[in-house]
Inverse folding.
């Protein structure tokens, strides 16, 4: 009997071949990701300088100086921030309801189903919805396109993720912990706010950060709502006026026939990818930090 | 089922009185027709084969069964004369007076200090917190092991220490009664002995009711013992229904039990 490994045996041969094939497909799967990031970094990084981040974009046509993307960077943070301000309280509250209060009845099943549906809704639908309900009707102080409307559209996209991660994060918390708190006379509210929610903070925070990262890069919902602006968002009614964002700037300028504007779009792509990358790394960091504790 | 009725000794003060208590999960009756008067300042142990409803009875005393949607109770549970299942009763208030220690040590993911302070604070404790933390840990016989690392996580302790931390946390809310559901079943013998010593200390200030599957432990720690058993339910298909067989002083239960089932159980013939 020979126990040595035989390369040529049928079994070992097919094993090797299949391993190679899966390796090839795995490479193919990550290749686009790496290429996109590399391409954007190379095309965009060369455009980056301090003026770019502090100046306003110039209207297309003036080839000599295209200006910067300062207002769009701020706008992206503002609009995403508004979305977060709306989506986090509602989403976390909804998640708490599902995990801690509901008894798995038809109502909570309906909400869970709705959440899943909502997370699959194309982002452009969220934009059209907010356009129809808020922008075209001018219900918010008579304003038309606005940063506020943009934030609301983004919050619709963040909501399902926030609800789901809160729900699932809380369900991971051991029931023993809840019983422990209730067993020493904590009310349900205290148990949730002081024991269960802190225990589930890591997955919830991670989910929220990922939702933010996703929303920050959205274009379609903003075209119908936040629109674009060549100016800084200033004054007391800044949020009620159109606001520039990186994604819409890219959408507008990448298609311009002018070289200078195209470059600006690349620069904006670079900054946007950087922001999203950083946010994702932060979310990794949160879960690493907490799991090492 | 009148054999389960026991007359309590008149010279002792009853703090908890179960009167014809039947507890069901949905349609399934887990324990039936329990009469039992628990005396103040004593350690009472509940023994019996598993599945006979000891935990169910224990949870009924501080309304932890409320957390199980299908669970319902018939009969009366009196605590210092008040019916705990009166609709006007606030279960949170009940659990502040009747604290509970669970089978698995379940410290909060907080520092040792905060584990103790948390319950006291939410119960409106206004005194010196440092002092309360120390005295609670001392009473639970875990102070020496904790005093140098009060700011470490409760999870940094061993299983036995965690369980004593959980006992300390319950002591800190200054309840009148402490319920313990098999508090030593997840622990090694040395931790078990430590916790038993703790109980002798606690007896001075608290009424203790402990579920245990360890008869030696019941013998060592308790003044009174209630023996529960389960029997095949008449009529209904399958399922056993628990009932209280005998309730008496611990040494009577172990030395001269009245019921044959008790005799069989303590001599290890079944269960
Ligand atoms: N949450 C529950 N839901 C349904 N049935 C339960 C539940 N808890 C316990 N039971 C049933 O009640 C009976 C008594 O259980 P339990 O009180 O845990 O017994 P013990 O603590 O004496 O082992 C068992 O038959 C068990 O299956
Ligand atoms: Mg039990």
């Amino acid at each position: 009997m020979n126990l040595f490994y035989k390369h040529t045996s049928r079994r070992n041969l097919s094993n090797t071949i299949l391993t190679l094939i899966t390796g090839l497909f795995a490479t193919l799967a990550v290749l686009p990701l790496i290429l996109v990031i590399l391409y954007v970094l190379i095309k965009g990084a060369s455009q980056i300088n301090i003026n770019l981040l502090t100046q306003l974009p110039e209207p297309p046509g003036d080839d000599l100086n295209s200006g910067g993307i300062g207002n769009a960077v701020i706008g992206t943070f503002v609009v995403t921030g508004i979305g977060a301000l709306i989506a986090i309280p509602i989403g976390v509250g909804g998640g708490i309801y599902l995990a801690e209060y509901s008894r798995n009845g038809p109502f909570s099943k309906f909400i869970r189903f709705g959440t899943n549906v909502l997370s699959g809704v194309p982002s452009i639908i969220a934009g059209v919805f907010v356009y129809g309900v808020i922008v075209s009707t001018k219900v918010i102080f008579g304003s038309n396109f606005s940063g506020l409307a943009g934030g609301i559209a983004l919050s619709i996209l963040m909501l399902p993720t926030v609800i789901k991660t809160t729900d699932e994060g809380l369900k991971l918390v051991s029931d023993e912990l809840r019983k422990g708190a209730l067993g020493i006379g904590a009310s349900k509210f205290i148990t949730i706010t002081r024991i269960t929610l802190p225990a589930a903070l890591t997955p919830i925070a991670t989910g929220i950060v990922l939702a933010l990262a996703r929303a920050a890069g959205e274009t379609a919902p903003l075209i119908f709502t936040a629109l674009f602006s060549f100016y800084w968002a200033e004054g007391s009614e800044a949020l009620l006026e159109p606001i520039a964002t990186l994604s819409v700037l890219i959408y507008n300028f990448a298609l311009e026939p002018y070289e200078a504007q195209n470059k600006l779009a690349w620069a904006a792509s670079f900054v946007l990818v950087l922001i999203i990358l950083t946010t994702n790394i932060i979310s990794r960091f949160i879960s690493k930090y907490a799991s090492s504790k | 089922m009148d054999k389960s009725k026991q007359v309590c000794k008149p010279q002792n003060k009853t703090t908890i009185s179960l009167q014809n208590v039947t507890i069901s999960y949905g349609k399934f009756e887990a324990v039936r027709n329990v009469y039992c008067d628990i005396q103040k300042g004593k350690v009472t142990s509940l023994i019996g084969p598993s599945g006979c409803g000891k935990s169910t009875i224990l949870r009924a005393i501080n309304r932890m069964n409320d957390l199980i949607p299908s669970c319902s109770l018939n009969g009366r549970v009196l605590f210092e004369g008040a019916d705990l299942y009166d609709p006007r009763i606030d279960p949170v208030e009940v659990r502040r007076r009747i604290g509970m220690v669970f089978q698995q040590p379940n410290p909060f993911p907080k520092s040792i200090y905060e584990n103790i302070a948390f319950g006291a604070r939410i119960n409106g404790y206004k005194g010196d917190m440092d002092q309360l933390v120390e005295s609670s840990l001392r009473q639970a016989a875990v102070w020496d092991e904790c005093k140098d690392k009060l700011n470490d996580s409760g999870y940094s302790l061993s299983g036995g220490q965690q369980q004593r931390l959980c006992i300390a946390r319950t002591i800190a809310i200054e309840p009148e009664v402490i319920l313990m559901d098999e508090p030593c079943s997840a622990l090694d013998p040395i931790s078990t002995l430590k916790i038993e010593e703790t109980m002798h200390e606690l007896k001075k200030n608290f009424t203790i009711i402990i579920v245990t599957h360890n008869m030696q432990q019941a013998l060592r720690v308790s003044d009174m013992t209630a023996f529960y058993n389960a029997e095949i339910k008449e009529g209904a298909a399958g399922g056993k229904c628990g009932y209280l067989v005998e309730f008496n002083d611990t040494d009577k239960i172990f030395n001269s039990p009245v019921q044959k089932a008790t005799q069989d159980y303590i001599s290890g013939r079944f269960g």
User: Anything to note?
Assistant: The pocket of magnesium ion (ligand 2) is lined by residues B 54-55, 181, 211 (CB under 6 Å). The longest strand of chain B covers residues 14-25. Chain B has a mean pLDDT of 89. The interface with chain A takes residues 62, 64, 67, 69, 92-93, 95-97, 99-102, 104, 106-109, 118-119, 122-123, 153, 166, 169-170, 173, 175 of chain B (CB under 8 Å).
